[in-house]
């Protein structure tokens, strides 16, 4: 009688058979490689070739075998966990000090973020391409430029940085800097910013500092030394710097007093009188805003990037002042984008205050924003050289809370602003734009024609995916095996250990390049491959192919030899996506390789026989039929059902799915109900596999026969699953029999 039924009716009961895991896997491959860009020793998911370029850069002369192994695998529709291999040679470019290796964001946070770094900015990615990065930072800076007349008599004006300024109009502030811009003619050679030059003033040679030189406009910006100079600058006076020389052009002298206004001060105006350091009164000729003329590169103005930085709303509400700054990240040499001077990133209106937030509540403290949002740089330390906002030395430093704080302003020291074209922009030296050019970033060491990466570093990279509980993978790609037999055997052996320990993925291996590329004799190539194979450990989780392919590299407009293990893993992934994992990836239906111009070693039947006897899967180009994987063996040395890729993949799928369901039995009672529940879930799953041609028959035993009292007392649970896997056809025999006329076929054919 149905439960709880005393009269006719319908009782509804549910039986959940959906809890078993799906048959399919994610088709995730993994490759560790010496990529040109990207985080080091960090697992990064990539799904397209475009994504590979964006995250790890394009292939180059030293890593293309690895790079195209990855891209060719992706061409078949799989996804890839890419890992950039570490090396002691790798370094991140920095603007000062010794270049470190900052592997990834985790290492930055643990080692560098709070350290006393001797650099302000570092490239986000290790390698020489980071040396193309320039970081430009500007803040409110000078408020005004006051044009001053020539002295009436005596010597040139002398204004010292940070000297107080005031006028009867009520304007007050400090000298941000004082410079003189000279337009020259009769030019011989050029001038070097950051050095000194000599000017003949009234018959006396005076040494001055070269702040900027614009060869296009022939404008030379100079700064007078402490103590000033003797005499007054005048038209036609000679200027020399080594063998370089010029003369001041007619009406070619502009005296600029850069002023930083005090908080709440009115602006200085024309006719205001200011005093220089010698207490000489100077009447201002005209005044203009400084920011409209401020440049980050010659000819590129900040005003076209964003409005002048000032005081953020957050800081203003807390009584803070001038906390904002702008940051530009620029590809100076064009090594990253291909276009010199391209702006890579803009960070506008960031704050010097640690607690600053935007109007929508996001953190706006500039080191934090750089860490969270930049793809190109890390922040290292605050700039120490500045224009003091107040008379208190401790007040106004970067990295303080904004409450009641008047933040110091950026002011570059002489000789620090080394602009990329050999000429500092006018007005920028000793002013409010800092330029940080990154340098000393280093790539992998080159050995022969490839990046040199040690097996220890390779193993460290692959170890990141060695734990099946934290990383789901299906295929491990070897890329190039190694520079020599010893290195190759060590690398492959380490990877075999990973798949044997995980037991849920397969490793794909190609022979060494030297085994097949440039080997004209097919017999020699065959022997090379077999000899290499014979040194590898036996494993049903490994598949070995016969070599390399020749393909086009569109990024460098050349043709390359590329190892085939990316393709072999690719057709295996495509087979699972289009059919099921237990179908063989070999043959004309599913084993077609892409982007093959030719094979350096195209084995004939006799060579294929030799290779296959050694469990090596030949890759063959058949005239009119393309290039195909022509074998589906694993690296298992003994005869077994597991010596075929499709059977190994079948068991991987079944074991993954059933083990996931079996976890639900943990900590339950080992009784008839739990055992029946397990069998009731596994059997429909196996029937599904059977219906999809994975197995021909199965049996699940989980009862008192294998869960005896002793097993129960040991807190164990046993399920025995017997399956008959389907086998792929490897050998076809066709018998053609000629018979005489008049002979009935029944006479010669049984039955």
Explain this structure to me?
The protein has 751 residues and is an alpha+beta fold. It folds into 3 domains: 28-87 and 449-647, 3-Layer(aba) Sandwich (Rossmann fold), CATH 3.40.50.11780; 139-437, no CATH class; 669-751, no CATH class. Helices cover 20% and strands 25% of the residues. The protein contains 15 helices and 35 strands. The strands form 11 sheets. A 6-stranded mixed sheet has the order 2-3-1-27-28-29, with helices on both faces. Strands 8-11-10-9-12-13 form a 6-stranded antiparallel beta barrel. Helix 2 packs parallel to helix 10 and helix 6 packs parallel to helix 7 (485-502). The two termini are 55 Å apart.
List keywords for this structure.
25% strand, six-stranded mixed β-sheet, Rossmann fold, 35 strands, alpha+beta, 751 residues, 15 helices, six-stranded antiparallel beta barrel
